[in-house]
Amino acid sequence: MSDLPEPIQSHVTTILASPSDSFTNRRKVIGTLGLASTALCASSVSASAGWFWKKKNDLPVVEVKSIKSDGRRTTPSTQSKQIGGFPEEWVRLQGRNLKSYANYVNSLKLKNISAQDLITAHAKERGGVWNTLPPKKWWTRMGYTLRVVDRVSTAMNVPIHEIVSAYRSPSYNSRCQGAKTGSYHQVNVAVDVKFDTSARNVTRATRTLRDHGLFKGGVGSYSSFTHIDTRGTNVNW
Fold first, then answer.
1. How far, CA to CA in Å, does 182 sit from each of 22, 51, 70, 113, 144?
2. b/e for 42-74, b at 16 or more Cβ within 10 A?
3. 84 falls in which pLDDT band (50, 70, 90)?
4. d(CA 16, CA 113)
5. Which of the residues 34, 45, 77, 192 could staple to 164 if both were Cys, CB 3.0 to 4.6 A apart?
6. Cα Rg of the chain, angstroms
7. According to the model, what pLDDT value does residue 61 have?
8. DSSP secondary-structure letter at 178?
9. Helix, strand and coil in the chain, % to nearest 5
């Protein structure tokens, strides 16, 4: 493991991962993992992004523990609870859910991602179709993925530049060039994210953290951003 960047070697602490055969709500702890003593917990395979849920409300099971500051690393960014500046038409379409969703994201107490960052990724329009916030019953799904992205930022000690895409409604997804019809964005477990470093660096660091137990999911490499999802099985593309 000597080829790992120093922040990853020093600062990744134990996590809990509990994927089930059917991706249901069973969240039992199946192991305590650490870089110093744990072999790779899962292999990665090459495939394209897509989702095939057996049941409508099935979801991945990934839990990421927070880490304590060791005094050698500063938080890449300070998050604000203030939100705003979204298109008026989009705000009207969201109704009362907008404030509630912001409160939910703030409740996650992420170090490097604010509600403003995440909601901005939803307040977009393509081909005359506005994207929306995810269905309320799916909000907690994104919490798993956001914690992974937050940990990647902290481990690399690199700020997040932009959440490019998070949840995408089916109608909005169909307007996005290159988006898969079975995209994991449509079930609210995926983000496309830019950091203040090359996407190649982010992809490599994310896969390293994942393969040592941080989460189980997909990591896709693109020229300007990295796709990260918590589908429950390891996939690369």
1. 18, 5, 41, 26, 20
2. eeeeeeebebeeeeeebbbbbebeebeeeeeee
3. confident
4. 21
5. 192
6. 17
7. 44
8. T
9. 30, 15, 55
Q: Which residues pair with 195 in a beta bridge?
A: 160
Residue listed under structure tokens 């390891």: 234
For residue 187, what are its two tokens?
A: 């079930």
Spatial distance between the Cα atoms of 148 and 163, rounded to a whole number of angstroms: 13
Quote the mean pLDDT of the chain.
75
Query: How confident is the model over 14-61, as pLDDT tens digits?
Result: 332 333 333 333 233 223 223 322 322 333 333 334 433 334 445 444
- Structural domains of the chain in order of their starting residue, each with its CATH number: 6-51+58-65+87-236 (3.30.1380.10)
Cα 49 to Cα 52, 54, 60, 236, 237: the distances in Å are: 10, 17, 15, 9, 8
Beta bridge partners of 190: 229
Q: Report the amino acid identity of residue 21.
A: D
Q: 10 Å Cβ neighbour count for 31?
A: 12
Decide the pairing of beta strands 45-46 and 235-236. parallel
Q: Please, is 92 exposed, middle or buried when counting C-beta atoms within 10 Å of its C-beta (0-12, 13-18, 19+)?
A: exposed
The three-point CA angle 139-107-79 to 5° equals 110
Whole-model pTM: value is 0.70
At 126, list the tokens: 């393509």
Percent of the chain scoring above 70 in pLDDT: 65
* Alpha-carbon distances of 32 from 18, 45, 64, 69, 213, rounded to whole Å: 11, 24, 11, 20, 9
